[in-house]
Design a protein that fits this description.
The protein has 364 residues and is of the alpha/beta class. It contains twelve helices and seven strands. The strands form two sheets. A five-stranded mixed beta sheet has the order 1-4-5-6-7, sandwiched between helices.
């Protein structure tokens, strides 16, 4: 069709005076040249914009960016979970904690909101000391479990007692419980050790370390994990798969209304790593077919865990993540470090809503 139209135009142009023919040809050639230049410029711009986008994303994942004070967009679910039969419901704004946790009217909820600032000051007052007690509890419990296993002749292979001893993380769960109840949530609705199962989508149930559930509404789910040496390699991969699998299972079940009319919950992830020579050592990556992302090249396991926690939040698998490290000697005395500023926030739901992210409270 286009060729026929071009032939018709050429036939008609041939009947014009020579000067008009020359003008038509110059006009056509000018348009073709202009189009070619536009395509070349556009292609160059796309390459430059793509490069800038890659640099920005790399800086974000590496923790080299900082907030500029703009209002955060309302969080959405990971992995395209908006799509499906629950799409309209998922876009609804989550209820604020003051509304969810109170049966009172607007005036009652207003009083709760006004009291938030005062409660936050109480929470912040001795947070560093309370965090240190949780760290010390971890290392003392771990040492006690290991000594007991040696005496009974039932010691785990290697140092697996650091994984199989569930009570080690109790100090952190105690701290999270205190932060939640200090924010105004009655302890009656905080579940730990018992009744911590949630329905999954890919499996029947999953046990979380801490839940907040009131009146058939899931408000908070927190997972707390740790790792000590010397076997960091396999355990890092296991921890990564666990964290991703738990988040995907929960959000998909939420999409399918497994938690009834629950608002979008606050989902938190906490990790403590042993700070030692093996966890700080640069680790080679295997690239037999494709290049790994640059942030992983030469990254130690401490750095890898930092990247994991950050990406879990940036990719919206978790509402907030916190990451700390401690040496064996310093940890038993309650000393710890926060390797990354953006991962030093406590796992405390914001008074603005269960899914609004962690508050301003930090581990420092």
């Amino acid at each position: 069709m286009a060729i026929k139209l071009l032939e018709q135009a050429s036939t008609k142009a041939a009947k014009l005076p020579e000067d008009d023919q020359r003008a038509v040809v110059e006009c056509i050639l000018g348009e073709l040249l202009s189009e070619r230049r536009w395509q070349e410029t556009s292609a160059a711009s796309r390459c430059e914009l793509g490069r800038l986008a890659e640099e920005a994303q790399a800086g974000l994942y590496a923790g080299k960016t900082r907030p500029l004070g703009f209002a955060r967009a309302k969080p959405c679910l990971p992995g395209g979970l908006y799509h499906g039969r629950s799409q309209a419901r998922m876009r609804s704004c989550p209820l604020p904690l003051g509304v969810v946790m109170s049966n009172g009217g607007p005036s009652q909820r207003g009083r709760e909101t006004r009291n938030t600032a005062h409660m936050r000051q109480d929470i912040l007052r001795d947070l560093r000391e309370r965090s240190g007690r949780a760290v010390a509890h971890y290392w003392k419990t771990r040492a006690g479990q290991r000594d007991k296993q040696k005496l009974t002749g039932k010691a785990d292979q290697g140092l697996r007692s650091a994984v199989t001893g569930g009570a080690q993380m109790d100090g952190f769960i105690d701290l999270f419980t205190e932060l939640i109840t200090d924010s105004g949530i009655p302890e009656l609705y905080v579940f730990r050790k018992k009744a911590v199962e949630l329905p999954g989508f890919f499996r029947p149930t999953k046990e979380w370390d801490l839940l907040v559930v009131r009146e058939e509404r899931l408000l908070v789910a927190i997972e707390a994990k740790s790792q000590v040496g010397p076997s960091f390699g396999n355990n890092f991969n296991n921890r990564t798969e666990e964290a991703l699998g738990s988040a995907l299972d929960l959000w998909t079940a939420y999409r399918e209304r497994a938690y009834l009319t629950s608002p979008q919950p606050f989902v938190g992830y906490f990790f403590m790593l042993e700070d030692c020579e093996a966890s700080n050592r640069s680790v080679r990556v295997q690239e037999p077919h494709f290049k790994v992302f640059p942030e992983f090249v030469g990254a130690s396991y401490l750095r890898r865990y930092e990247l994991l926690c950050r990406k879990l939040v940036l990719e919206r698998h978790y509402t907030a993540a916190a990451f700390i490290s401690a040496t064996a000697d310093g940890g038993i005395q309650g000393r710890f470090s926060t390797p990354a500023e953006d991962l030093s926030r406590t796992l405390r739901p914001s008074p603005c809503g269960p899914s609004a992210g962690a508050g301003v409270t930090t581990w420092r």
